[in-house]
Amino acid sequence: MKNPFKKRNRKLIYSMSMMVVFCWLIPLLIFMAVMVMMVTRRLNSQIENTIVTTSDKAMEICLLQLDDVSTASKNASYSTVIEDAYKKYRLNNSRSELYNSVKSYLDTNYKNNPSIKDVFLVFLDDPDNIYYTYSNSHPLTRLDVSDFSGKYEEDVLKQASEYGTGAHLILSSNRVFMIRNMLDQNFETYGVLVFELDEDVLFESLNSIWGAIGYRVYIDDSPIIFDGSLGNSEIRNFPAIYGNACYENAVYFKNSDNYYVYKNIKLDNEKISLLVKLAKNAIFDEMSVVRTLEFSMVAVMIVLFGMLFIFLRSNVTKPVRTIEAGAREITQGNYGHQISGTGGGQEFASLENSFNAMSAELKHQFETIYLEELELKDAQIMALQSQINPHFLNNTLEIINWESRMNGNIKVSSMIEALSVMLNATMNRRKQRMIALSEELSYVDAYLHIIKQRFGTRLQIKQEIDHSLLSVEVPKLIIQPIIENAVEHGMDKRNQGVVELKVYRVDKKLYIDVINNGKMSDEDRERIDYLLGEEVDEDKERSVSLGIRNVNRRIKIIYGEEYGLSIYSNEEGNTVSSIVLSTDFTEEPRYEKETDIDN
């Protein structure tokens, strides 16, 4: 007979393989081919956008720095400090006073400017006396005043005479200067202010452009600053190609297998063109990496498909078949069925363990629910038996109490009232599982009143209760059984004894201690451990013993294993029954159908 599972497994593996080929491999190969083209185009576009964006920001920074220097020169022209000092010199001919005033002004305004190496002020009617200051930022590269006077002054003054107002950049013997004519109130030139600029600081931001390896700066289409990576002949006439364009955004372009970015900016009325050369390798490396990665992924996917087919056949089909068979056993009622030998790696081994654990838990839950249903039915029967006609019993006690009062027997009447309180507590007409501690203590007082009538002065009762805890909710009828047990086992041979009740709080726990002066023997210790344990034959135990066992079990069910009843001997040798509850416990709502058994 053919194995139907073998045919099904073979169909599964081949179906999965065909699904992988037609729904994954072929579409993925087509997708990768399209992606090669799209990614290449998109990458080129992103590279261009990145270059243009970084170029615009870098060149804007250059403009801001140039404008800052231009503003600094403008302040000297608009300020009357130098002009007033010069006029005063013309009147009193005090050169030292003029020198001190001009020197102080130059030091204050330009000495700490990082874009300026040194500052020179030349009065046209006295060109031999040059007023100057040096920047603190360039102690090694500054131009000495004697060098300026001997090599640059004549050329600078000549070029300054060709300009009117405004700041202008000039190149003199490979040094870059910004010059501004100083005008008096009659708009006549009386001096020339000269800044030697630090081009490395002014145009430093150009090096932050992605892939930048060199730059060139043009002033009115004439190059004034050269970088080592751009030769003197390399697109020297480039500004003439674009003319007055490229003011809004930088232009990214290719020229003779080289890549550049170009932009024009305005400083006062002067056109400044910035040309940056980009590294060719940096651009092509980005695209080549993507293409290599894409083709490598295609080759790897084809190899992986073959390996996947083999893997699915040996590591998926067998484990699935084993788990399917186990699931069929459970559906047929074989709870607790265990599987083994699924194989397929760590994941299927974990699934096997989970399946076995689930099956065992299912069996345990089924058996537990079955036993709980039996216990619940027994409890319901016992509850019905214990509540036979409670109205009749209560009404009878009321009649006896009335007769006792009519005959003046107050002692009997008070005992009947206490017994009535105890009866109402055990009937639990309101179906309450939790009550206030104050109500629970009222049941204890009723019991103690009755038992005091029996023992009289031979039984001493002491209570030490924290009244701030009276509103805390506790399980109903958990203290009276412990008091009853303490009375029964705490009386000595002369039927005398002392029972203490203490209620107090420690942190978030409520402690109810019942202390009696009875001595606990080793036999008593073993019996207590037996009663508070799990295996107890309840049919053979007395009601008092079952009472303390019932209290312990109820507390643990409601609060958890951390809480409950413990019985031990204290340092004085007295027996202590200690109940531990939680002060923060909140009972969840119980949605039960109420049955009026009393009626």
Rg over C-alpha atoms, rounded to the nearest angstrom: 52 Å
The CATH superfamily of the largest domain is known as PAS domain
| Stretches with pLDDT under 50, minimum 5 residues | 1-9, 379-389, 589-599
What is the count of structural domains?
A: 3
Q: Please name the CATH topology of the largest domain.
A: Beta-Lactamase
DSSP strand tally: 17
Report the top-level CATH class of the largest domain.
Alpha Beta
Overall SS class: alpha+beta
Q: Which shape, going by the Cα principal axes?
A: elongated
**Could you give the distance between the termini?**
69 Å
Query: CATH architecture of the largest domain, please?
Result: 2-Layer Sandwich
**Biggest sheet character:** 5 strands, antiparallel
Residues in β-strands, percent: 15-25%
* Helix segment tally: 15
What is the residue-averaged pLDDT?
Answer: 77
Spatial order of the strands forming the largest sheet:
2-1-5-4-3
- Report helical residue fraction: 40-55%
What can you see in these coordinates?
This protein is α+β, with helices and mostly antiparallel strands and 599 residues long. It has 3 domains: 52-281, 2-Layer Sandwich (Beta-Lactamase); 320-383; 450-582, Histidine kinase-like ATPase, C-terminal domain (Heat Shock Protein 90, 2-Layer Sandwich), CATH 3.30.565. The chain has 15 helices and 17 strands. The protein has helices spanning 4-78, 81-92, 95-110, 145-161, 199-202, 238-242, 280-315, 317-331, 346-386, 390-406, 410-427, 437-455, 480-490, 522-531, 543-559, and strands at residues 116-123, 126-134, 168-172, 175-183, 189-197, 212-219, 222-225, 251-255, 258-267, 270-278, 434-436, 459-465, 473-475, 497-506, 509-516, 564-569, 575-582. The chain has a 5-stranded antiparallel beta sheet, with helices on both faces. A 5-stranded antiparallel beta sheet has the order 7-6-10-9-8. A hairpin with a 5-residue loop joins β16 (564-569) and β17 (575-582). α10 runs antiparallel to α11 (410-427) and α11 (410-427) crosses α12.
